[in-house]
Records
---
Amino acid sequence: MNALELRDLSKNFGGLRAIHGVSLEIEAGERRAIIGPNGAGKTTLFHLISGFLFPSSGHISLFGRDVTKLQAHQRAASGMARTFQVTNLFQKLTLFENILLGVQAIQTARFCFYRPVKSFREMLRETDRLLKEWNLWEKRNVQLKNLSYGEQRKIEVILALATKPRLLLLDEPTAGLSPAETALVTSIIKGLPREITTLLIEHDMDVAFDIAERITVLHFGSILADGSLEQIKGNRKVSEVYLG
Amino acid sequence: MPSLFAVLILLLPFLFSNYYVGLATQIFIMAIFATSLDILVGHTGLPSMGHAAYFGVAAYATGFLYLAGVKNFWCVIFLGMGLGGLAAAFFGLLAIRARGPYFMLITLALSQVLWGVAFKWRSITKGDDGLPGIGRPEIGMGLNVKPDLSFYYFAFAILLIVFIAIFILVNSPFGYALRGIRESESRMKALGYHVWLYKYLSFIFAGIFAGASGVLWVYYSGFVNPSNLGVDLSVKALLMLILGGSGSLFGPAMGAAIIVLLENIVSGLTERWSLVLGIVYVVAIMVFSEGIFSIVKRGRD
């Protein structure tokens, strides 16, 4: 089954065609990267997939189910999680509370208003487990804004994982990181279980080629090329527009 | 610290005159009102400028019911809180879609509509003459809250009940989600939270608790008039949060105490008390952007 299927997807902003006729199939378990020069429409495509924008035409299906008309939170509830290019976390809450909000998001208790969080043992245990798994236990009571940028980029990914997604969308997860931090975040992503289908937008070609098995090249809102790493490396059109 | 406060509140009537017992009663009621607004401002991050609407709806309901002969407190507070919540449920539909300054303007405009109705519809509301002659309620259980002193203790008991309810609310999974929305709506959406619904429900909760304060206020002051719905009261509640600091139970209560005391003491000295309040407001924003009591907290850390 395809984890994600885009059929003839287009998005116009007034006269600007940001995404034009994009069709894409991503198999369950695949790791795919979307690359492309600045302004190619990568982030717009991500917003369309995650429901932050709605397409002007075309269809999106998630694990065989048409989600074109579903809102962002409904898509998230059907197994999709995303990160943000510009770090988007709960800055004034503690690290523990940040992760807890991710864990809580998929529980029916998320609407419960008459029982303290402290009494939901399983949610607390799961949050503790994630914090320990990712070596963040010591920092659990630190306000998020007091953590380093590198740590915050790592938490971007972990918060998305807390909702146990089947499809993970990563929007430039290594943006602004030092080489050492980039290596760390890359290894986290490469170490994810294969059940999580991963779609990655990446500006850094090395990271994209390191993580993904297949690459889709976006150029002026359309797909320019699509294939294995070797095919993309050997593609003349790609070198022209992107590799220079 | 809290036990010290409890002792002080229990002993206050024996140490101070009746005038101060009255002021303290006002503080209790305004503390409920400010804390109800803080659900929106401090937790969800929605700066409502029309919170008096829910206070006033409950206040008018209390007045009408008393004059119609309904004097049972539990009946009236149930209805008052229900009406506060209902008004919020209706206004919330219109206001929640807007953000930031637009949200402030819409909530302000909606509350002014109610104020206008209360002011102009003289045959029902008696306009700005208001509804005088409202007495204290009956609470059953063999207790009498008609004297000022017993009403003081009664108002404090209701304040405690409301505080416990709001404490549970803001520490529940629902309350955590509200603070997540305050920090980042888009991240909450991406995690799968129905952001609109959370905001809407928090708006209704705030309306319900504001209703409780409106009911108590009328029983305390003995009359209802359009100022119970007005922008003055809404802004005063925001000031309480700014002065006391939002996001806790203690902060809004302290803000309520400061405003009520200032209002009563300064208005005894000069008619231009709102000018004094304006200066206090500007200084508070400039110097204590996280509330006066953030200094106490900083000192403790």
---
Amino acid sequence: MNTAIRKRLEAQLRRLESLPALPVTLGPLRESLDRPAEEIEVDRVVQLVSYDKSIAAQLMRMTNSPLFGRKQMVGTVREAVLALGFWRVRDVVFSCQFPKIMSGWTKSVDHVSFWRHSLGCALVSQKLARLLRSRSAEKAYLAGLLHDLGILVNATLFSDQFASTLQRAKEQQTPLHEVEKEVLGLTHAESGRILAEVWNLPEDVATVMEFHHDVGAAPTAKDLVALVHLSDLLCRLREMGYGYYEALSVDFAGSPAWGVLAQHCPHLDRFDLTRFTFELDEYAEEVLTMVSNILGSNTNAA
Amino acid sequence: MAGTSLTVEPPLEGRGAPADPHLVRIRDLIYRLCGIYMPDNKYYFLGDRCGRRMKVLGASSFSDYLDQLTLGSNRDAELRALLNEITVGETCFFRNQPQVDALMKIILPKMIEAKRKAGYCRLRVWSSGCSTGEEPYTLAMLLMEASQSLLAGWQFDIQATDLNDHSLARCKEGLYSDYALRNTTAFFRQKYFTPEGDQFRIHDEVKARVDFQRLNLRDDTRMVFMKGLDLVFCCNVLIYFDGTAKRRTVQHYFNALLPGGYFFLGHSESLYGVNDQFRLVHFPKATAYWKPSSDAPPPGAK
């Protein structure tokens, strides 16, 4: 991103009285899960998850949800951790904490739409990555979940302007980032990048946040960026978007992101995209159910 | 070809209650042979429709019935009978709203602009396999409405064809049940229909917009005369064709379209493995196939 935009964003972020922090639990948990698999201690992870009762409860609920594909119900945190595997524990805990992540920022973004889009994109990215046997499959979920966090930053930093940005995007039925560029002079991709640095998120996740609308420009993690870019579009096309009608017409197979993915995933030419999109419609229903359940339970707890 | 679909394996992650595995195989068989996809939330419906056929045949389980569909001496006729059960009574006016939105909000505005530049203010539409007329009349009403705005000063022709004389007679009669109008808004009901007892008759001005003809899609000599079309609709017709016939018919549609024209299938149909000259384009909750044009850019992928 150009230095003028970076400076402007950094200055704006400094002016916030308190920058919303990454929820406390996520720090130590991420640290213990970022180690090489053989060094991760199950007991330590279980302890960290159990530390917060609401997280533990949500971990159980999500582990037993059809979206995470459990065939047998799990009854304890330990069982959940073992059943999911460490990568999934991290994914699920980040998902559980998502309402908390959102609550630090302005309420002017509709939380149900935003979370539905984020969770939908996480699940679709992961599903797509697995089907395509992508090497980035393990990271796809988290990158999909967090790719749009810059929207929360923009909505907070530029509250009035952002409200009119969103309004204009709705009226014109155009993608949000295009209108952001016109109205704010920058997009949620740029502010997402800054936030990722402040929160010390993994570098490839930060790259996805910065380049998910401009795959060709990504310097690294190109396949992950392409994967999330396509999943983002698929979600917006299948009722897991920003909550308004976007007049999108997308030729996936002819898009630059598809070309990038084709270099990394030899299976792509055998991939039945039409069928995949049909399946997403069922996903959309389940994602919405999960979002309402967890947002609902979160409101009750507060 | 279609059997190589990557989305068949591995199975979908945790989709609610598992369906009878033989029913799943019947679903996959229908998709492979006919290109019509029944999502998981339609298993109940699929099971019910298979049940009707099983009663006729005296088959006691989905496993038995699957054998009849795959190994029975009468398997082609049986598949056809099952498809009749699945698609019966499906048609109505404004049957596929996302498709209507994609057409009116996204495709037509761009197409009109491109054609106007070329100085050609005429639109040609073909409703192929029009059954009892709901589809071509829906298109006629939509284009008549657009004549006030988008299509002001434009000419449009709608051709509608079907093999079945009985269906064509009903098109010309133009009398419809309340059920056929279940998706029709009060605006269109009042403007274009007159109640007759408990039925509704479509106005002559709409009828005058559609040219009905009997046409067998397998009649190659007549198919080659279909030319110069901008939009072709072929909903739930190709599902009855085997692979070879389907490829040949789709090739006719491709040839009949002008470059830059669009080909539409039914809600859950796909051309996967049938034709690779068309480009699959995604719209919100809808897909269509685009015939590449050297003048017009491919639909945007941002």
---
Amino acid sequence: MALLTLLAVATIAIVRQRSLFGVVILAGIYSFLMASLLIALDAVDVAMTEASVGAGISTVLLLATLHLVKATEMRPIHANWVPLLVALVVGGILVWGTISLPPFGVADTAVHQHVAPYYLSRSIPETGVPNVVTSVLADYRGYDTLGETTVIFTAGIGVMLLLRGMRRRDDNDRGDAA
Amino acid sequence: MSLDLILRIGTKLILPFILMFALYVQFHGDYGPGGGFQAGVIAAGMVILIAITFGMSAAKRVAPQAVVERMVPLGVLVFAGTGVVGLLLGKNFLDYSVLGHDPVHAREWGILLVELGVLITVSGTMTALFYAFVERGR
């Protein structure tokens, strides 16, 4: 509960903050709080990913982006009521959706009855890997993980082409002017 | 130059431990939390720490840009190639049981290879992105 309160405080601070440097640091804090929350829920693999990717690399890459752009957020030109309305409606629908969820941590819900027992009981005899998260990620659901890797590959190539291509055009412009 | 002596020595001291931790997370992923994604990010973090403390030229001596950029597609190829081996040997795509004599052992190998592919792509992409941002800023 304390972690959830801190998460809410961090979110409000991010929204109110005008300095983008502050926003990046607060987003890092948010990720660390999220990682602590995931550890409290015994999801260590996800917590580790959140801490390393969310708090680590994302913060570094966002700071690198701030290096390229201005570091203060401009005041909005017109009042943005439509995004606020969309956010409130979507948030309301999500909260409404959680009402019909089964109680937290109950063992006999649908999600724990389908493939989870199969994975838990067959992981060691079938793959010899004690960490079920790893065996599901890399073996039973290997196709999904291949897709994830391809997403990272595509995103990386895209950003690199974007940043490089822009520089080359700049160089050409400078050459023409001279 | 002399003021950041503590920073430089401190960074030098923890660098091998960061790499060690990345490899631990990678290869202990079968037994504890961790795997290719996390290990790749930690390894890339080590290179970024070198770049921040000692400058880009030092980072590029450790991880040359050409190598890093080739790692991005190489990892996907390792992953997909592991799947294609299963296909060529008469099983389904990404069926690892053909990789060894004993199917259980073979699947352990398959997981290891696939995680290696993830590690290569993730660490390569993160480092290459950081390089691209820093060079764009010049």
